[in-house]
């Protein structure tokens, strides 16, 4: 499963609300439960845009989801090229940055490949019908995209890619991805045994960790740690976090091989 040297950039590590949340910053007399939103105004490691990641290997740039904060994330991280986008699921915070792919397809002079489950692609093609219509319109204001159904192991730009089906919010096609020896699962509540079997031997696991206490649709810290311990990666980073996670105080709850990710964090793998 090796893909050669790889760079992973955590573009965003927050949930659909982001951190600081609007509720905790502009609502009259609002108070953040743990003060994280207030600290996020001055400490960048508390500030969390909507979840997304970039994997660069073999001269290929693979983007995981186009979050609602896509525009700001591309500027902040100086992302110069996108060869393909791997969508995890159809929720708005993971897909609504899609229109701004146009800046890349137009500059690169060719369509950007987009991958996802059948359910996810069908939703994208309904929601952004103008971008997928046939025959395609090639203009600078519209992204040029080529959709690919991805539900089996394949190779993209020389990187081995394996879908990791998970259960989340009743969706039938929600999935994370294994890229070489890195697994990215930003939204899940249950990870089936057959998916865990595909996650053995990881160098890095990036997995959602919504908050400290259980949630009906997302993994909490105890559950995320449990899955990480079952997989035993060399390193684990938690993402898709609400303002209930204080990276300073709560880091004491983690083993040495695990940590809370932060926006802009970069990991290099040999």
Short description:
The chain contains 10 helices and 14 strands. It is α/β, with parallel strands linked by helices and 270 residues long. The two termini are 13 Å apart.
- Work out the helix count: 10
Low-confidence segments, given as residue ranges, are none
The major β-sheet equals: 7 strands, mixed
Q: State the separation between the terminal residues, measured CA to CA.
A: 13 Å
Mean pLDDT: 95
Please state the CA-atom Rg, rounded to the nearest Å. Answer: 18 Å
Which sequence of SSEs, written as H and E, runs from N to C? EHHEEHEHHEHHEEEEEHEHEHEE
Helices and strands: which structural class? alpha/beta
Fraction in beta strands:
25-35%
Helix % is 10-25%
- Widest β-sheet, arrangement of strands: 6-5-4-3-2-1-14
Number of strands: 14
The 3D shape can be described as globular
């Amino acid at each position: 499963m090796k893909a050669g040297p790889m760079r992973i950039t955590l573009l965003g590590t927050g949930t659909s609300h982001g951190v600081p949340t609007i509720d905790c910053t502009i609502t009259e007399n609002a108070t953040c439960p743990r003060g994280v939103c207030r600290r996020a105004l001055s400490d960048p490691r508390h500030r969390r845009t909507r979840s997304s990641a970039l994997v660069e290997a073999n001269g290929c740039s693979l983007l995981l989801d186009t979050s609602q904060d896509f525009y700001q994330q591309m500027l902040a991280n100086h992302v110069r090229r996108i060869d393909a986008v791997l969508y995890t699921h159809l929720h708005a915070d993971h897909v609504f940055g899609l229109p701004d792919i146009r800046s890349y397809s137009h500059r690169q002079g060719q369509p950007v490949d987009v991958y996802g489950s059948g359910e996810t692609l069908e939703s994208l093609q309904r929601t952004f019908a103008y971008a997928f219509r046939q025959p395609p319109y090639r203009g600078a204001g519209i992204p040029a995209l080529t959709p690919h159904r991805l539900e089996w192991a394949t190779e993209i730009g020389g990187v081995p890619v394996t879908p990791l089906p998970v259960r989340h919010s009743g969706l039938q096609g929600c999935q994370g991805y294994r890229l070489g020896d890195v697994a990215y699962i930003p939204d899940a509540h249950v990870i089936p045994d057959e998916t865990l079997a595909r996650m053995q031997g990881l160098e890095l696991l990036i997995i959602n960790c919504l908050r400290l206490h259980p949630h009906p649709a997302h993994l909490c810290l105890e559950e995320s740690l449990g899955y990480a311990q079952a997989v035993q990666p060399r390193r684990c980073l938690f993402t898709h976090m609400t303002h209930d996670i204080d990276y300073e105080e709560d880091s004491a709850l983690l083993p040495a091989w695990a940590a809370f990710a932060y926006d802009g964090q970069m990991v290099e793998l040999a």
